[in-house]
Fold these 4 entries.
Entry 1:
Amino acid sequence: MRVVAGELRGRTLIAPRGASTRPTSDRVREALFAVLGDVRGLDVLDLFAGSGALGMEALSRGAASATFVDRARDAIAAIRANAAMIDEPGRVRIVAADWEQALRAERAAGRTYGLCLVDPPYSLLPRITGRLGAALTPVLAPGATVVVEYAARLGPIQLHDLPVATRTDRIYGGTGIAVMRIGEPA
């Protein structure tokens, strides 16, 4: 697994040991960032970060900063190793916490993000869609983009209470990607 494009292009990424993490393939990351377009200057939240590959790709392509959230010890170790490629202090934050706890803390700190990358374990996604949209909304900057990776076999996911203005879904093999541009809350 490597960084696909940008200043870190070609650098090898470390993935957590074991089968509990499913890193997004290079092909899917490349296609996703083609859909996203320019991410320069955005603050990025990589939720359920795993290896941190999505957030690292955003940083490589010019994102201002990335906050990586995961609760698994092996994932945090892999993210730390991958984040060592970034020479600028302050561009990377690593939060070792459950997603709901992390989002509450980000909201309390007044942090907002222009791009939120959500790649939970596929088996967890159906159980959290009812809470995820409402939890994300307070940490999204105006006009933010939320990306959710899901198992294509499950069909498109719906995040309740997320003020989506436009949505694009793409399927890459067994992986589905929902790219949601956020509008004004109703």
Entry 2:
Amino acid sequence: MRNVPNSQAGFSYVEVLVAMVLIAITLVPAIDALQVAMLGSGQHEQTAIHHYRAYGRLEELMTGAFTTLYDEALALGSATTPSSYSDAPGTQDRRLVFLSEYDADNADGDNDRFTTGMDPGIVWLRVEIENSPIGFESLKSF
């Protein structure tokens, strides 16, 4: 019998060191990418909460009685004044509700939907989160 030397018995020390260096070099960018993703997930969570709170209030108003919304819109007289359906001042993530009469057909031709030529029986609603880009608009009629 001949004695054959074992040419590949295991990894050499140099191969292990090279592998460790490669892992360390590629691990740093991967961890940085995960850190950015983790920071973004917190922002997304807050945006999702604002979205559902604002949309939930809009749905509540859309299912309510038209006459109460219309009476409030007439009393406000402006699309920029928050209505009594808004959350109390100082509330965290305050929902602002704006109501107004609406010129849906633009029969007067001035392209102004909120100050002239209002159509009776149509209310414009806007719900937004204060100091946030989240907001929803809709129209309701009787």
Entry 3:
Amino acid sequence: MRIYASNLALDVTEEDLKEAFLAFGQVTYVKINRDQAPDNPSTFGMIGMPLKNEAKAAISGMHGKKLKGRSIAVNEAGGR
């Protein structure tokens, strides 16, 4: 299951994100994307978790939690 995490602090690393989500189960990948637009820099991440029940627990457990000083938004990633 793919998870979308947004409103990440600009200094969050893939290792930070992986460590946070490992508390809920196996993590198969983490990818952070950074948009460095001068007027609105933003960072979001994609997290892969193979077991749906662990992914759903991670979504509800991490949504609104602070990571490096910012409350993050966590949702199931939409399909392509």
Entry 4:
Amino acid sequence: MSKVSTIIEHAERDAATGAQYHWAPFMMAEGISRWIENDISVDAIGKSADAAICCFDYPLMLCIQYGYINASGMNKIYGDLIKAKQDKTSGALSYWGYKLSVWQDWSGLGGGYWRPRKGDIVFFNAPVGGDLNHVVLACGSTDALNRAKVISFGERLEKAQQTTVNATTVEELKQAGHTTVKFTQPIWA
């Protein structure tokens, strides 16, 4: 089984079983950082309020659990994200690393390739939060209404709390204020 299939199947299973993790806003989500520092185990990421994750940490947590990303790789990802924020460049672009050749803008695509493929990372851009306003995993399929299925964690939350992983669609998540929806292959693909 491919890495992408493994991650998506795990995420879909989380959504189907109502799996819950502790969510916190980006600057408060310390679960992966604590793991990098060897302060908690892999299995503790997202399992308590002091090891919370945010929406874009969710797919990374799954990759860490399967050994697709190690602590050194996570340090680089976080370092690139912080540098991008300091340089005022797109944090999402830097965050997801080297697969940027497939970066696409949902609103600007024509023809048959307008939906994210299985395993793509989907970014909802808004004035607050930029490309990281919300981040989800694409399932690579559509529902009965031809909407692009995704797995989402922590959508529309503002306060730290325990919450459920959800199966939803890009169209259901696109909120007023989202200026674009973009997607790209993940770094583990």
